[in-house]
Amino acid sequence: MISRAVRNLGWTGGILFRVGLTVLIGALLGFFIGRPWTGVAAALAVVLAWQWRRRLQLLQWLMRNSSDSAPEWRGQWGELATAMLRQLKRKQFHKSQLLRVLRQLRQSTTALPDGVVLLSPKAEIQWFNDAAMRLLRLATSDQGLRIDNLVRYPEFVSYLRDGHFESPILIRSIGPVEGWLSLQLVPFGEGQLLLMVRDVTSQARLDAMRKDFIANASHELRSPLTVISGYLETLTSDDTLDPLLSGPLVEMRRQAQRMNGIVEDLLSLSRLEAADREAPREEVDVAGIIGQLKKDVLARAVHPQEVMVVAESQAKLLGDTLQIHSAFHNLVDNAAKYTPATGSLHARWWVDADGAHFAVRDTGIGIPAEHIPRLTERFYRVDAGRSRATGGSGLGLAIVKHVLQRHGATLEIRSSEGKGSEFICHFPPDRVQQVTLQPGTNAL
Ligand code: ADP
Question: Same structural domain for residues 262 and 316?
Fold first, then answer.
């Protein structure tokens, strides 16, 4: 009954009650021997010694790291031990859960067909799976070493240095197994990196076969087409021919010219794709090229009424003249094709701190937003009927994209349906050769 009453007092009350009772007993015993204070001091010493003993026992229990059961003590020490045991068990449960998840994660990444390498913020190898070991020929002893000291492909070294990890890079792997590897870095955590390695040899082979096929087919089509076009040309200029045939012959000649255009575009694309390296760095007279392009537009049977071409800089571009001419021609030609005679076409070439830029703006039919991301795909046309009617092959912007890629440049497309479009080529500063002459605006 007393113990229940003590428990009801709560922790502090219980302690005070027990200490008070011991001191009272000590005082009474001391009173009987005529020294009540000595009795009180002795009682306090007993309380202190007992508490000290419990503390030591608790410490020993904790040191034994026994998590099976708590010492069966009554009172606060018992409750303290039980609470500690509960905490200990909870911690052990979370730890085992975490270890299980980690083990599963390791097993699954080890089983992955793709290589995974975990890198520290300093690009040192922390861990890798079996596939990475095989594909990159890593060894267990490589852990702790910088990845670029082991994977020494120049493309990878500059990829790691530049920090633009949005898309993977392709490298030609050499060694026991020749092939193609796709490498992609994925940042995570606090500056750490995950290197994903994939063997893309079979896709690369298929891609190469597809490119070869297109190049060969286009090449083979070229000669018969030239012969057909030649005969059609002769026939259409023959005055003795039945007038009833002249209409179909003109149409046949037009279609043959279209086929020629497609074959030439396919061959240009194949040549661009076959060139592994970036474009050469010849001096390209952009002002001269765009002046010629203006003349080409004005020579069209139908063209926008206002055609303005402005070279704000005489700076030369360092690139491939033929490729740049073909890309800029495609952009200007499209603007002329997709803009009514009442509209306007503005082309502009300028240089600033970000590099050089060539923009072609028109007030034509515009492009619905959902088509813009796919415009540079081969044969992609917003309106196939209209494109065919204007003599388009759907390859022009694919050529532009490839040419720009070879020059380290990008294409920006802005368009609003029914209002017009703007295509801007952005060239990096290292592709621009500045002129020392006084720069000035030059309307051509
Ligand atoms: P195409 O030879 O058919 O013009 P491109 O690759 O040059 O092929 O262009 C792809 C498509 O993008 C075109 O079919 C057309 O629908 C659209 N396009 C390109 N330039 C313009 C422009 N300036 N205005 C409107 N639509 C355009």
Answer: no
